[in-house]
Amino acid sequence: MLELFTEFFRQLAEDHPRWNFIFFYEPRQWERILKGIRYTLWLSVACVIFSVIIGVVGAWLQNSSSVFVRRCVAGYIQFFRNTPPFVQLLFFYFALGQFTPAVTGPDGWTEVPIVSNVGWAIISLSFFAGAFNVEIFRSGIEAVPESTQEAASALGFSRFQTFKDIVLPLAFRVSLPALNNNLVNLVKTTTQAIGIAVPELLYQCVTIWNDFPSAMYPTMLLLFVTFIALVGVLVFGMHRWEKAMQIPGYGH
After folding, report:
1. Do the beta carbons of residue 193 and residue 125 sit within 8 Å?
2. Residue 21: Cβ-neighbour burial (10 angstroms; 0-12, 13-18, 19+)
3. pLDDT score at 252
4. Residues 6+ positions from 28 with CB-CB distance below 8 Å
5. Which pLDDT belongs to residue 151?
6. How far apart (Å, rounded) are the C-alpha atoms in residues 237 and 183?
7. Average pLDDT of 185-213?
8. Per-residue pLDDT at 153
9. pTM for the whole structure
10. How far apart are CA 77 and CA 173, in angstroms?
11. Which of 8, 134, 209, 230 is the S-S candidate for 216 at Cβ 3.0 to 4.6 Å?
12. How is domain 39-198 classified at the CATH fold level?
């Protein structure tokens, strides 16, 4: 069956040179695609997790009693919301990357930076999406009635306990629709990591069609379909989660 599959696409490439699905019959090109998908998934999952954490912590710090802390959070939000994510990516990698220490590589004489290009991509994109998540969670927190927080305080809850056990769970439910949209955009934005040579799916596809120009259309099609599937899974999962966590009677 596998031989018939590979032979079909090999014959298709001969009959229609502009539709050369080379990754379906050359193992080395298929390995490139798999590697790209692995890196795309790794970037997406890591950035989603860290951006949500940043959003929750940032929303908590926005209510800090310290004016300095609140202004730092506001400055962070303005910086990352009002500059292009691609520029941020280049700034983190090429500017801040120059100041990170390096360690001796496996060969014993080359120096390898502690934070790799993949690490900088995760840091940059997480901070970018986290800035939007802070505002998303802030709006969710503001939707929690003040009386609810006052009741928790009257029961002896500390400010942190009130936030962790009462305010955040309610705010999270309210914030899920907006959070869903932001996380979808974040997954699509991971393709910009190609700018610092992270070998994610777009990078691998460009590499393949640079080596084999006849494979341009097939690799573009594969890239398109893969991201539709990836985003579709995320949207489906978030939608199911949103339905499961919906507050009865809220919004009706």
Report:
1. yes
2. buried
3. 46
4. none
5. 85
6. 12
7. 93
8. 80
9. 0.87
10. 22
11. 209
12. MetI-like fold (1.10.3720)
Q: Which two tokens stand for residue 135?
A: 């505002």
Torsion angle of the four alpha carbons 237, 240, 241, 246, in this order, in degrees rounded to the nearest 10: 160
Q: Which of 29-33, 49-53, 59-63, 76-80 is predicted least confidently?
A: 59-63
Which residue from 166, 209, 186, 207 is spatially nearest to 20, judged by alpha carbons?
Answer: 209
Q: How many angstroms separate the CA atoms of 47 and 39, rounded?
A: 12
Q: The tokens 């799916």 sit on which residue?
A: 201
CA–CA gap between residue 228 and residue 222 (Å, rounded)? 10
Do 216 and 51 touch, CB atoms closer than 8 A? no
Reported confidence tier of residue 107, pLDDT bands at 50, 70, 90: low
